[in-house]
Amino acid sequence: MSQQAPKDMAAERVAAEFDIEALAHHWHGGRNNYIIMQKAFSLIKSDPELVVQPPRNFVELTKDESREFTMGQIHRLVKLLQDPVIRSQGPEFGEAIFQALVNYSESFSMRIGVHRALFRNVLLMLGSDKQRDEWLDAVDNYRIFGCFAMTELGHSSALRDIETTATYDPNMDEFIINSPTITATKWWIGMAGKTATHTMVIAQTYIGGKHVGHNWFIVQLRDRSTGELMPNVIAGDIGHKVGRSGLDNGWIQFHHTRIPRTQMLNRWVDLDRQGNYTPAPSPVVMYATLIPERVMLVLNSMLMVSHAVTIATRYGVVRRQGNQNQQIMDYLSHYGKFAPAISFVYMVRSAANTLDEQFKILTAGGNMDPEVYMYHMGDMHAISACMKGLTGWYGSDILETCRRACGGHAYSAYNNIGQIIDDWGVLTTGGGDNVVMLQQTAKILLHLLTQKLEFDVYPTLKFKSSTHYFIRAKEYLAIPQWHVTDVTTCLDDLSLIEEALHAILVKRLNTIREELKAGATHNDLLLDSVRAAEMHAAAFLYSDAVGKYSKADSSVDPGVAKIMRRLTGLWGLHSLHTYSDQGFKEGFLTPQQVKQVEKFYLATTKGLRKQLIGLTDAWGYPDFVLKAPIGKYDGDIYEPYFETLLMSKNSIGVPSYHGKYIKPLTDTE
Amino acid sequence: MSQQAPKDMAAERVAAEFDIEALAHHWHGGRNNYIIMQKAFSLIKSDPELVVQPPRNFVELTKDESREFTMGQIHRLVKLLQDPVIRSQGPEFGEAIFQALVNYSESFSMRIGVHRALFRNVLLMLGSDKQRDEWLDAVDNYRIFGCFAMTELGHSSALRDIETTATYDPNMDEFIINSPTITATKWWIGMAGKTATHTMVIAQTYIGGKHVGHNWFIVQLRDRSTGELMPNVIAGDIGHKVGRSGLDNGWIQFHHTRIPRTQMLNRWVDLDRQGNYTPAPSPVVMYATLIPERVMLVLNSMLMVSHAVTIATRYGVVRRQGNQNQQIMDYLSHYGKFAPAISFVYMVRSAANTLDEQFKILTAGGNMDPEVYMYHMGDMHAISACMKGLTGWYGSDILETCRRACGGHAYSAYNNIGQIIDDWGVLTTGGGDNVVMLQQTAKILLHLLTQKLEFDVYPTLKFKSSTHYFIRAKEYLAIPQWHVTDVTTCLDDLSLIEEALHAILVKRLNTIREELKAGATHNDLLLDSVRAAEMHAAAFLYSDAVGKYSKADSSVDPGVAKIMRRLTGLWGLHSLHTYSDQGFKEGFLTPQQVKQVEKFYLATTKGLRKQLIGLTDAWGYPDFVLKAPIGKYDGDIYEPYFETLLMSKNSIGVPSYHGKYIKPLTDTE
């Protein structure tokens, strides 16, 4: 058994019908990026301040050890980024080291992410040029650590309900930040527990006794030299969490804390010395900060999914069980789940890149037609929200699939899947609850569809947005049933599935629209709306990939292009199968078609069975990042797994409590 | 916000349309049982050896602390059970104390369960009277601790493939137990890590050079006085796991370990001094041990689900959010999930009781017709396996629902849901992988259906078994479509849904049968088989409850009977909705019916919205068992939640690593 495993693994790589290295280059955005990334992994691998070295094991760190180790990683990273030798290799290498650490530790990723992405982004997008000049250098050189105080104990991120107040005192030219109740306590704030010197705070703003809406403020939390709390601020560690024990999530209470007026972010709003307040031109500018963060969250969540999928896929080809002593990956219950999961990871990466580019176009060009800009921002908000919903939920399912596919061995902490699932715990609710996210998408979709259907409003857009298919809304509504009688033709012409998904979506959204008009409440249709929004995300992934891969592209290795087309086709079939209930409800799909879709979908997963190892190899994760002996690259899993647990302290021997609790019972006649 | 919460909670209790206490009595099997159980909870609550006392928190115990604390609980429990004052209150009270601890700690539950249920049951069911006389008293008085060594590193519980051998040496009249390879190492064995003095071992048995099958052997692992390992046995702790850190799962290797011939369990098999081996009369007698264990596993898993559901339901009624500042439980995405989850808990408890009774009939009476006995045993195996599958998977979904329904606060370890999910991690794969379990059910169902359809074989049974509906198989096959045009009538006559579920099942199973005959492989139809088997379990739950609650029963409080009927009806609609794809595939349900079922199902969940708190109250879990401030009985959640984390060590203050990692970066200009 244990000798067979590496042979089985090697055979899988031989069976790949594409050049795994070429796909790895494609995945990393070019050969050069791939090489730099592998170099970064090599650099961190043996650094004891960045990676836990045997016999210590990453999963065995206590909460306090993990909090300390993670801060040590940040300290070491900053030193490395300032090191002349590292700097001489270009900024890409520094970024690759950062990315390598993001891969290695979710706690690191979120702890530094709070500072680098949340705090810094809010400063850049909502702070004036002057504020940027004042703060950015300290942020970028880690002279301050910033956090992001939005959520409160009693109010999650429903901004309307937050209780923290910022009241302008014209006599002193200061704002007074206050937490009036226990439920106003800022809660879950990453880095607020022990580390952050500063925070961005969102608060209900009162000027001249009048509520003027929400604003963001910079408040200092701790002394930069001593680490002690500033006067009138109390903050502490949130304690034990389900995952990410290296991140000091915290809580903050403000007790009439005073800050200068100039620490209200004022790129879009303003308050002069006389107390005259100018509101933002549109609430869109205030929301826009959340879009890139959400896209980043989606991408980072896919790292976790791809790690778990790599581990479970590898275990699946070296473990044999059953009547014919098969590889367990040969069971439909295995490959039928892993093939779409892997395809999903590829689709999300590709679509997230597209959204990044689109967001750059929107924020860079100043000369855009306001109507077009607003349309795109609405659409971007909608698609980023439902992508978060889809990746959060389907990602959860995939992780659970990985857990179950590894049998009992996923229950061992030494195989990392449990840790990934624990770290994942925050994602379906944090950063915007998924139900709320999908509801928001649904509302925007319903609005845009109404605009199109009732007023024929559809601006000429800058790029193909996620709701592009609404252009053909009337046409879709007029089609009673899907015309495809032989589903197997769908992989020859990928647009067939695209049309089906879009037709179903338009019909479903229109039904919801009509039921609302007929008096149904949003709550009555909540599950329908959420499901339609989720399907919109799945369809966007498909459209995006069809656009990229359906035609020959000379810049892409032909083998790579071919496997990407196969993954795209599988994703389309997966989406059509998953949401066939939606098509069925609309009478668009017949029972016969639904059965055909299922059959062909499963057959397509079977066709990819032997490609799964190559597809996960291309992601290029070293063993030390995966932290799972059962997911080792070479398939030689059993001895290293056993050795890992033998390295644990007190693994063998009489327990310290034997005399106290066991002997008194057993040592009697 | 924080003042409103207890008021909201109180209003929920007022809204209950049944007597909560009467339902609590019903749930506990009578008023007396309920009172004893509450007394047991009171007894353990303040005992520092049984329950972690503040300021320490159960979730903060390290792995080693948890292992020790759990053994301390066992030691204390044994002392309590031997205490004359406790004994004077009858064996029910001792059992209630045990159950109270099972509720309090999953680690305790499984650690002692290995000894009390697994080791002891195997001895009772497979050991001869002589062996029972020799060992039982030591087991029941904890002079030995027994574990159960089935799974191996390389083979989970696929018995055919296990590698451990037991070779009879006629010269010494001994068996030699051996682990020939690393993958033969017994793995995951509860209590083998540090505690167990003895183990049951299943091994490939060789007598006179011939393989005679599997047998169970008693092997001593550790000295009862010193706790040291016995010669030629190596065992150790499996280390860090995803959950149940108080249980010392372990691994065992046998190095030509010798035991007397008399330590082979020989109720059904025998080996005499001359080396003559008598095999078991039927393999059924060897499998039968697993049935009650599986039913117990199902029941215990429902404890975890009901704990999480109680916490999340309570949080759902005290948390307010949204446009109208609603209780979040008022959202369809909340009550639409919790109503069926709560109904499921009630259904499973009821059905598990039925199975327990049926198993007693089967094992008690010796004068049963062999054909009837075999039929029932096959059916019992099938239903217990698919119940494990359904509860494992739907239970996972419910726990994830609970996690998401609590927003970020389920990510705090102090609210226990994360811990429950971690502890749950072992259930979908341990004790028989769910896919394998459901496959086994499907195979038995297909066999029995074939017997009925092709040979009209159906014995006159002792009781209504899970496949009872096969009697009407031909009739069901002849019905083209469901006759019900107004689904809302289904709650007036609960048999309508029962017939629909059974008709769909017979049709689905028959389709699978025909596809197999036409040349499809079992693997091709794996997902279909597994889904049909899962649906069979759901239908059994429904039939069982319909049998119990559809008619007036003078022994049950009328209000209780009424709410139980409503829960039963909801479960039926839930099942019909969940498996409507199956009915649709068979053309039995029209799109119109599927849509009607969904609408009426959701409306029925809405009708139960205000009953949810009362329904969870009836389970009678004290706050200290739930370990979740956000799930407090009185709804006063925020201050206790905050106080809980303030009790944690180093909650506030400059971290120890400030000078090393933070100050060097921030204390610069």
UniProtKB/TrEMBL annotation, chains A, B:
Entry keyword set: FAD, Fatty acid metabolism, Flavoprotein, Lipid metabolism, Oxidoreductase, Peroxisome
BP GO terms, sorted: fatty acid beta-oxidation using acyl-CoA oxidase; lipid homeostasis
Domain Acyl-CoA oxidase/dehydrogenase middle: 147-255
Classification via InterPro entries: ACOX_C_alpha1 (IPR055060), Acyl-CoA_ox_N (IPR029320), Acyl-CoA_Oxase/DH_mid-dom (IPR006091), Acyl-CoA_Oxase/DH_mid-dom_sf (IPR046373), Acyl-CoA_oxidase (IPR012258), Acyl-CoA_oxidase_C (IPR002655), AcylCo_DH-like_C (IPR036250), AcylCoA_DH/ox_N_sf (IPR037069)
Catalytic activity of the protein: a 2,3-saturated acyl-CoA + O2 = a (2E)-enoyl-CoA + H2O2
GO molecular function: acyl-CoA oxidase activity; FAD binding; fatty acid binding
Coiled-coil stretches: none
Domain of life: Eukaryota
Binding site for FAD: T151, G190
Domain Acyl-coenzyme A oxidase N-terminal residue range list: 19-145
One GO cellular component term: peroxisome
Pathway: Lipid metabolism; peroxisomal fatty acid beta-oxidation
Pfam family membership, one: Acyl-CoA_ox_N
Boundaries of every Acyl-CoA oxidase C-terminal domain copy: 497-666
SUPFAM superfamilies with a match to the protein in the record: Acyl-CoA dehydrogenase C-terminal domain-like (SSF47203), Acyl-CoA dehydrogenase NM domain-like (SSF56645)
Localization of this protein: Peroxisome
Similarity remark: Belongs to the acyl-CoA oxidase family.
Protein name (Swiss-Prot/TrEMBL): Acyl-coenzyme A oxidase
